[in-house]
């Protein structure tokens, strides 16, 4: 289960009959309390315990573990129930609602015990993350949808997995050195890659590390789950925003082993790769034997061959998106105070223009956009989104539906043939 925070909230597929029940909610609340009590604030110097809100996306029914200051919830036994208002974001994320900062979870929460506990700790960390100063503005990481970017990232993951499995300290250090060499080589190929990746590893990688570290009680469980994280995203359509969920636990656990005090040294500007290089006292520079390192983790070249095939398919897909979402004609939606729900595994970088969200729910001052297929482009400056303009100029296009709030209308856009949203001065 992928989890997200802030603007990067994930859509989650749920059964049609999903219903939040009190027994299930109490199980989640009890496990959250167990995780908090076991940690007692030791990992980050602050307890993860706090308000939890479980929401059924089918009918917005909500069950919470405490009363909200706005009294939107009604006490019933040891839980508090209500309905999330229309327009409020529903996701595994940190939300501000009814005078409270909540850890929000979508129902059903995973029935698999290990995944549920990791998810709980991950999302509870997001609630306190701003107070720890461990949040950063995110960038596109578009290089992670290229042939070389993806290839070097997967080699790094393979080396990290071997490091986690190594029993011998020298073997572990050798695999860490290889992982850092692949990382440094990738950063050398793409401008801004180091900073862009570091931002998402702080925002989501640290959260997933916390989920693994606090959600699971034993070291062997944590290492196994971190290795699982390094493999379960391999089939994701894109690594652009999912990669940090894979790398975060691996870097965190390896840092735990080499420098148990590392968390006291971290800040929002930190780079996990640099921290690990310092902890293991190993250089991260690209060495003359980089090709030999590659062969150790891609012995038969099959990974490279698969990525070459995928890149050909990516180029064709990007060309189609460019025609539909840049060349137009387009409906341009201004972005000011936006909230997004999306699947981070599916994002498609579109050159320097921005990022395509194949499915998306986007809310802003003008209303609500729901994209079910064919995608929307969120431009790189995060000031505009575009969808293909329907021929009738209406509120429904091929794969998307727009619901406007009173006081807004569609008007001619800045470019001939485009339309945009503007305030309707004719309405009071």
- Helix/sheet category: alpha+beta
How many DSSP H or I helices? 10
* Uncertain stretches: 1-18
Beta-strand percentage range: 15-25%
Spatial shape: globular
Helix content: 25-40%
Mean pLDDT: 90
Through-space gap between termini: 45 Å
Please summarize what this structure is.
The protein has 428 residues and is an alpha+beta fold. It has three domains: 9-132, no CATH class; 142-299, no CATH class; 328-423, no CATH class. 39% of the residues lie in helices and 19% in strands.
What do these coordinates show?
This protein is of the alpha+beta class. It has three domains: 9-132, no CATH class; 142-299, no CATH class; 328-423, no CATH class. It is built from ten helices and 19 strands. The protein has helices at residues 22-39, 113-128, 147-165, 169-189, 193-215, 219-232, 243-258, 272-279, 290-297, 302-327, and strands at residues 9-10, 52-55, 61-64, 74-76, 79-83, 93-97, 100-106, 330-334, 339-342, 348-350, 354-357, 360-364, 367-371, 376-379, 384-388, 396-397, 400-404, 408-412, 419-423. The strands form three sheets. A seven-stranded mixed sheet has the order 10-11-14-15-8-19-18, covered by helices on one side. Strands 1-9-12-13-17-16 form a six-stranded mixed sheet, with no helix packed on it. The two termini are 45 Å apart. Residues 1-18 have low confidence and may be disordered.
List keywords for this structure.
428 residues, 3 domains, six-stranded mixed beta sheet
Question: How is the topology of this model organized?
Answer:
Layout (H helix, E strand, L loop, with lengths): L8 E2 L11 H18 L12 E4 L5 E4 L9 E3 L2 E5 L9 E5 L2 E7 L6 H16 L18 H19 L3 H21 L3 H23 L3 H14 L10 H16 L13 H8 L10 H8 L4 H26 L2 E5 L4 E4 L5 E3 L3 E4 L2 E5 L2 E5 L4 E4 L4 E5 L7 E2 L2 E5 L3 E5 L6 E5 L5
Parallel strand pairs: 1-9, 2-7, 8-19
Antiparallel strand pairs: 2-3, 3-5, 4-5, 6-7, 8-15, 9-12, 10-11, 11-14, 12-13, 13-17, 14-15, 16-17, 18-19
Helix pairs in contact: 1-2, 2-5, 3-4, 3-6, 3-7, 5-7, 6-7, 7-8
């Amino acid at each position: 289960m992928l989890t997200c925070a802030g603007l990067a909230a994930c859509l989650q597929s749920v059964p049609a009959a999903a219903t939040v029940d009190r027994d299930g909610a109490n199980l989640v609340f009890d496990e959250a309390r167990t995780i908090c009590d076991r940690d007692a604030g030791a990992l980050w110097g602050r307890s993860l315990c706090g308000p939890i809100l479980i929401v059924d996306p089918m009918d917005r029914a909500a069950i919470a573990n405490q009363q909200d200051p706005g009294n939107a919830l009604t006490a019933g036994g040891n839980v508090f129930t209500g309905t999330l208002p229309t327009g409020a974001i529903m996701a595994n994320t940190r939300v501000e609602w009814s005078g409270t900062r909540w850890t929000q979870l979508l129902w059903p929460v995973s029935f698999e015990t290990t995944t549920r506990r990791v998810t709980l700790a991950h999302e509870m960390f997001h609630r306190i993350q701003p107070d720890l100063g461990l949040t950063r503005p995110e960038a596109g990481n578009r290089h992670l949808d290229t042939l070389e970017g993806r290839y070097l990232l997967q080699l790094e993951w393979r080396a990290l997995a071997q490091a986690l499995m190594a029993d011998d300290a020298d073997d572990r250090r050798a695999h860490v050195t290889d992982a850092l060499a692949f990382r440094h080589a990738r950063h050398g190929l793409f401008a801004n890659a180091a900073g862009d990746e570091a931002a998402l590893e702080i925002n989501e990688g640290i959260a997933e590390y916390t989920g693994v570290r606090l959600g699971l009680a034993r070291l062997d469980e944590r290492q196994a789950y971190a290795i699982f994280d390094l493999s379960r995203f391999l089939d994701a359509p894109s690594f652009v925003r999912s990669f940090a969920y894979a790398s975060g636990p691996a870097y965190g656990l390896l840092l735990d082993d080499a420098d148990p005090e590392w968390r006291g040294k971290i800040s929002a500007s930190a780079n996990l790769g640099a921290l690990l290089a310092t902890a293991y006292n190993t250089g991260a520079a690209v060495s003359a034997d980089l090709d030999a390192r590659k062969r150790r983790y891609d012995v038969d070249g099959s990974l490279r061959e698969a990525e070459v095939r995928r890149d050909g398919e990516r180029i064709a897909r990007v060309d189609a998106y460019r025609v539909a979402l840049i060349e137009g004609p387009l409906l341009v939606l201004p972005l000011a105070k936006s909230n997004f729900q999306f699947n981070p595994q599916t994002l498609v970088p579109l050159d320097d223009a921005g990022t395509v969200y194949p499915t998306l729910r986007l809310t802003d001052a003008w209303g609500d956009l729901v994209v079910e297929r064919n995608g929307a482009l969120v431009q790189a400056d995060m000031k505009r989104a575009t969808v293909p303009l329907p021929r009738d100029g209406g509120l429904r296009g091929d794969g998307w539906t727009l619901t406007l709030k009173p006081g807004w209308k569609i008007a001619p856009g800045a470019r001939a043939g485009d339309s945009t949203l503007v305030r309707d001065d004719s309405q009071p």
